[in-house]
Structures are given as C-alpha cells and as structure tokens.
Amino acid sequence: MAAVQQALPFDGLPEVPTSSPWCQRWRERTHSWRHVSEGGFDARHYEVEQISEKDAEAFVRTHHYSASYPAAVRRFGLYDVSAGERRLSGVAVFGVPVNQAVLTKALPDLAPVTEALECSRFVLLDECPGNSESWFLARCHTELLAAGVRGVVSFADPVPRRTASGRLIMPGHCGRIYQATNGIYAGRATARTLKVLPDGTVLNDRSAQKVRRQEQGHQYVESRLIALGAPVPRAGCDPAVWLREALEAVGARALRHRGCHRYVFPLGHNRRQRARIKIGFDARPAYPRRPDPEPAAR
HSE-up of 137 (CA within 13 Å, CB side)? Predict the structure, then answer.
C-alpha cells in the first residue's frame, strides 16, 4: 500500500528538532512533512545520476521555495524507478557561489569551483519517503568525489519567509539533513538585509547587480519584477533608477537576516583522507536546533 502522509503532531511548528523522525518535502514551492514510520526508504527503488541543466532548472524553479536557479557545475537527479518507469523525484545542484570567498574561507586548501563546490539547491518531492534525503546526499557526495571534488559547503536558511498576503512559503531551516549526514557546523554566514518580493521570494544582490549593469540574465530578473507589477523599463532609462522604482512599485520589503547556517563536508574515500582536508573555521559550535523567530519586516 502507498504510504499516507501524516500531519505534524504539533501546531505551528515550522521545523522539527534534529532528533525528530519527520522529514521535510516540497511540491510547487509548498512544504510538507513525511514520517520515517511510513515505510522508510528502500534504495532498490531509487537511482541517482547526473542530469541536464534544462531538467535541473525546470525542476528547481517549479518546486524549490526560492523559485530561482543558481550557477551550476554538477547536477544530480533522484529517480524513482519503483513503478517500472523513471520519475524525477529530487534534484541536487552543486555550483558556484556568488562570492568565491564562500569556498576559500571554508576550504582554504582546495581550488574553488573545481575541488570545492557549494550545494546551492537540494529539493525532494513530497512523494519521497523518510530518509530519502540522507541517501541522496551521500550518493551525490560519492559522485562528486569521483569527479575530483574534495569539499562541499552547504547553507541552511533559518529565517522564515512569507508572501505579502501572509502565507508562509519557507518555514526556516536549521540544517537537519546536514546534521544527520555529519556535516561540520561552521557558524553563520554574514548577516544582511534581504529584499523580499510580494510572492515571498528574495531579490538577491547578484540579481540586482545584473539589472544595474545589464549583465547576462538581467532580462529574467526584470521580467519577474514586471510580472509582480513593476513598470516596463523605458528606452534609455538608467537601469539602477528603474530597479529602485520597480522595487518600490511592487512593494518589496526589507528583511534583516542574521545569516544562514554554514556546514562543511570534506570528501574522501575514508576518514583519514577526510581528516587531511583543512577546514577554515576553528570553532565548532553546537548544532542549531531551531529556525530563527520571524523577524519584523521594515
């Protein structure tokens, strides 16, 4: 029998503690939960392989809460083959961070982008049973190691996000999957102020820069803002001025962010190889247990 998804046995709980048997899932940017008691994960029903940029981007834009796709180097798909056909049920994207210091600070002895990558998207559908994510992530790390990657930096965003109407689209994460797979917790990334759009997505600094400088990809960013109610850019207008006016027109909100939780994964065939990889952060803080409280928008 197909497993039936159970409701969380708590009211208003965005993310459960790290010891909990509940696993978070996504479909069309809406989160839900699966319980390991539903039957658990059977590796015989799944396969992992590299997938095309087109397939990865379509899946991530459809299901990931950010509705955006990053600069990718390696892309992996989790395929459900239990019914005799291959259904794409999850995607992991490893690639280039906005700033290479993300990699060089965490893994100072590894060449950024070739030996070190950022896990920039990781999303599984709600049909995947409990424990799917740890198996999928482990298989991705094995594939990356075979390709010469020696370290991965991953981030968990602990700040909840809502649409302008108040609908919760991202409950905040403390990185439970990374903790379950023995990621090294390396504290928080830099605090910053986010520009939150009415649909709950974020206009990050890199996207804003594309518009101001009219760099590759600026048309997509502009089309997102126009779809939310921004005016079409006038011929000859200053892109920086248009962006400022567009953000005001759509009602973008400033949201203070204390920084994402950072996890580092040294990759190797055994414990000795992994121990040889230098981690750029000496402190080993305790794993965070809860997302941040919802901040007040301003």
Answer: 25
Q: Say what angle helices 239-250 and 205-213 make with each other, to 10 degrees.
A: 130
Mark 204-225 as b/e (b = at least 16 C-beta within 10 Å): beebbbbbbeeeeebeebbebb
Strands 161-162 and 253-257 turn out to be: unpaired
> For the residues of 149-184, what is the DSSP string, one character each?
--EEEEEE--S-EE-TT--EEE-----HHHHHTTPE
Q: How much is the pLDDT for 241?
A: 96
Is the pLDDT at 259 greater than 60? The verdict is yes
Give the relative orientation of helices 218-227 and 239-250 as an angle to the nearest 10 degrees: 30
Name the amino acid, one letter, at 38. E
Strand pairing category for 192-196 and 72-80: unpaired
User: pLDDT of 37-60, one tens digit each?
Assistant: 555 678 999 999 999 999 999 999
| Cα angle 210-95-278, degrees, rounded to a multiple of 5 | 125
Task: Give the per-residue pLDDT at 106.
Answer: 97
Return the H-helix or E-strand segment holding 198: none
Residue 77: name the closest of 103, 48, 45, 40 by CA.
48
Nearest to 124 by CA among 17, 209, 186, 32: 32
pTM of the entire structure?
0.83
With a pLDDT cut of 90, the percent of the chain lying above it is 61
Q: Give yes or no for a contact between 158 and 2, defined as CB atoms under 8 angstroms apart.
A: no
C-beta separation of 157 from 201 below 8 A: no
User: Looking at this protein, which amino acid is placed at residue 58?
Assistant: A
Greater confidence (206 vs 252) lies with 252
Do 75 and 93 form a contact (C-beta atoms < 8 A)?
yes
Distance CA 110, CA 267 (A): 11
Q: Which residues contact 12 (CB under 8 A, 6 or more apart)?
A: none
